[in-house]
Design brief:
By secondary structure, the chain is α/β, with parallel strands linked by helices. The chain has one domain: TIM Barrel, CATH 3.20.20.70. Helices cover 40% and strands 14% of the residues. It has 14 helices and eight strands. Strands 1-2-3-4-5-6-7-8 form an eight-stranded parallel barrel, surrounded by nine helices. Strand 5, helix 7 and strand 6 form a beta-alpha-beta unit. Helix 2 (26-37) crosses helix 3 (61-67) and helix 10 (251-260) runs antiparallel to helix 11 (269-276). It starts with 6 loop residues before the first strand and ends with a helix. The relative contact order is 0.14.
Length: 311
């Protein structure tokens, strides 16, 4: 019986690194991306072509993109906020551009400093320019499962924005649980509707583990027919608009779980853990990953002596 194929998309080098206070040297970024390129990922989000003043942590976007060793089996995607960013990205030969806006008006104005309609207008301009090239276009809709300032976001509102971008000809849509507000039944209902409405689009789930439900939400998305997931090495990431938020769903925890469930991720867990083990040295602090600390389920140990002998 053929295993169910799940496509794993690594976002730590953009979504994770941009949240780090200390600048990660360019050579170190390139080394970790090259390692990840050999792990079996379907897609890697390399960097962001945002203004270096806005995100100084990723001010080396061009150099990183030009110098990485690209694996022909991996799609290399980057975040672009505007037309200038898209032009910079395409000059580096990216495979895909990822555009972002929030389905929450309050969050969009807090995060992007513009209304949703203004964001849509700006992103539509980028789509119009990129559509004539071989570069794929993905739209990530932030706060699809709730806004920390507005509360619940109506499902119809999310689908309405997805529909507007689908009409513009994007290749894929990512529904993002930006602040970790999603819960499994909500996830399943939204993705079932989204999959039914957009059967030709590449649909991706992007979960954060803010309230400890990322893996449960991933399972709910799989039940709804979703087979693409954004993940972050070591569980890096977070959101400045969710106080106390932890990072994205942890790559190694996701891969470990899915493989135990008999699914095919295409990712080599041993190589993945070796890459994750480099992170504390790169960023100067521990990472949330529990698999990195405890090891895979069947990592065996020598018997431990009795408490009396150990005291």
């Amino acid at each position: 019986m053929q295993k169910k194929r799940i496509y794993i998309q690594e976002v730590a080098c953009r979504d994770g690194f941009q949240n780090e206070a200390a600048f990660i040297p360019t050579d170190d970024k390139i080394e970790i991306i090259n390692r990840l390129s050999d792990c079996g990922f379907a897609k890697i989000e390399v960097t962001s072509f945002t203004s270096p003043k806005a995100i100084p942590a990723l001010r080396d976007a061009e150099e990183v993109m030009h110098r990485i060793q690209r694996n022909p089996n991996v799609v290399y995607t980057v975040l672009v906020p505007n037309l200038r960013g898209a032009e910079r990205a395409m000059s580096c030969g990216v495979d895909e551009v990822n555009l972002v806006m929030s389905v929450s008006e309050t969050h969009n104005q807090s995060n992007l400093r513009m209304t949703r309609e203004r964001s849509f207008e700006q992103l539509a301009g980028i789509i119009g320019e990129v559509k004539s090239t071989p570069v794929a276009i993905n739209i990530s809709l932030s706060c699809s499962f709730g806004c920390p300032m507005e509360g619940d976001v109506p499902q119809d509102e999310v689908l309405s924005w997805a529909d507007r971008f689908a009409e513009l000809g994007v290749h894929g849509i990512t529904l993002c649980d930006t602040t970790g507000m999603a819960y499994p039944t909500q996830v399943r209902a939204l993705f079932e509707d989204c999959k039914a409405r957009f059967p030709a689009l590449e649909l991706t789930a992007h979960f954060h583990n803010t309230r400890g439900m990322a893996l449960a939400n991933a399972n709910a998305a799989i039940e709804a027919g979703i087979n693409r997931f954004d993940v972050s090495l070591g569980g890096l990431g977070g959101c400045p608009y969710a106080p106390g938020a932890s990072g994205n769903v942890c790559t190694e925890e996701m891969v470990h779980m899915l493989e135990l469930m008999g699914m095919d991720t295409g990712v080599n867990l041993e190589q993945l853990l070796q890459a994750s083990a480099l992170l504390p040295g790169l960023i100067g602090h521990d990472v949330p990953s529990q698999i990195l600390k405890a090891g895979p389920r069947l990592k065996l140990h020598n018997p431990v002596g009795s408490m009396a002998r150990s005291q």
